[in-house]
Amino acid sequence: MKLIRYMKYLFLIVVAIGLVVLAMANRDPVSLTILPSELALWTGVDYAIELPLFLVILGGFVTGALVGFIWEWLREHRHRAAAATNKREARKLEREVETLKGQKNEHKDEVLALIEDASPAR
């Protein structure tokens, strides 16, 4: 178990070193514009920002991961809803079984009722 934990830490350290090396190699500023220049002239929106290249690269990865997580969360909504419905139904049926067992053993000795409930169904 400790080996898996150490392997996870080693992997995270390697990724962190890789990100630092990527950042150091791509420090030059780049111009990030909202719209292409022709469309910016037509709409009147000409916004640009200077950022280091590594921030643009890492920002793209983070944005892509977030969009993917949100997309999957929305896609799996019906599965979570079905699981919640099944869980509610199971709880309802368990309560019903307990009620029926109580009615069945209502006028019996407690010890005999426990033994009868524990014995396998015939």
From TrEMBL:
Recorded superkingdom: Bacteria
A Pfam family recorded for this sequence: LapA_dom
All residue ranges annotated as the Lipopolysaccharide assembly protein A domain in the record: 26-98
Transmembrane segments: 51-71
Presence of the UniProt keyword Membrane in the record: yes
Keyword NADP in record: no
UniProt xrefs under InterPro entries: LapA_dom (IPR010445)
Keywords: Cell membrane, Coiled coil, Membrane, Transmembrane, Transmembrane helix
Ranges in coiled-coil conformation: 83-117
PANTHER family: MEMBRANE PROTEIN (PTHR41335:SF1), MEMBRANE PROTEIN-RELATED (PTHR41335)
The protein's name in its UniProt record: LapA family protein
